[in-house]
Write a structure and sequence with these properties.
Length: 246
């Protein structure tokens, strides 16, 4: 059905997409370190190691500093909840889709990690990558990350609710929302079958007034809620790993 909609609405969608690219406010990635350690004074237990990989949202677009974004606050919250030191690394770049994320990871030094967090998919929607190709590339990315980091668990963030995207007009907003929902279903179905993985939905973020001033990326309150949801899943995976004695 999406192909039918695209065929019928194609000229309008192309015109609106072109106009959006011309007029969209482009915010920078959050400033600050891309790796570090939280709760360095924690006693005895080995540090928990965290790797965050993704696109502009993972890179902190929408807030000014990394301590307001995803990776560093997540490490800080996990340190508080586990009583352990948490080392963290962020590998993210604005505009990347899944296949470009593979290239980014291949060109990056990846530190050993216990848990991986990913945030990708929006740029697969805007670049109109086929759903099957998107999923295969995502799976290839995850396998590469597991292999290179030695991680034991994964938390995958779903696609954002593009159907409410304030920066995009209708029918472009509606079409992007439908496409994002399709990719998100594929992603969740895959993750639900993976014992070592957890899925975090972003559908709660359909609150335009809480978004960043570009009307596209998360705002500070949304980053904080996102961090809390991801942390809960990492803690769950950590408890599972402890029970299994690994």
């Amino acid at each position: 059905m999406l192909l039918l909609y695209k065929g019928v609405l194609g000229p309008i969608l192309l015109r609106q997409a072109h106009q959006l690219r011309k007029t969209a406010l482009r915010l920078p990635e959050a400033a600050g370190p891309r790796m570090g350690q939280e709760n360095a004074a924690a006693p005895e237990a080995a540090p928990l190691r965290l790797l965050v990989v993704g696109d502009s949202s993972a890179a902190g677009v929408g807030v000014d500093q990394q301590h307001e974004a995803l990776a560093q606050p997540l490490a800080r919250l996990l340190a508080a909840r586990t009583g352990r030191a948490v080392t963290w690394q962020l590998v993210a770049r604005s505009g990347v889709n899944t296949v470009e994320a593979i290239e980014l990871v291949q060109a990056s030094e990846i530190a050993p990690a216990d848990f991986i967090v990913t945030a990708l998919g929006t740029n697969d929607v805007t670049s109109q990558r086929r759903p099957g190709r998107f999923l295969k590339d995502y799976q290839a990315l995850v396998e590469a990350l597991f292999r290179r980091s030695g991680a034991a668990g994964l938390v995958v963030t779903g696609l954002p609710p593009l159907h409410i995207l304030p920066a995009a007009p209708h029918p472009l907003r509606w079409y992007l929302g439908r496409y994002a929902a399709r990719l998100d279903r594929l992603l969740r179905r895959w993750i639900d079958q993976e014992a070592r993985a957890r899925y975090v939905s972003l559908q709660w973020a359909a609150v335009p007034e809480e978004m960043a001033r570009d009307r596209f990326h998360p705002g500070p309150l949304q980053y904080r809620r996102w961090v809390e949801m991801v942390a809960a899943q990492v803690v769950d995976l950590l408890a599972l790993r402890t029970q299994q004695g690994t």
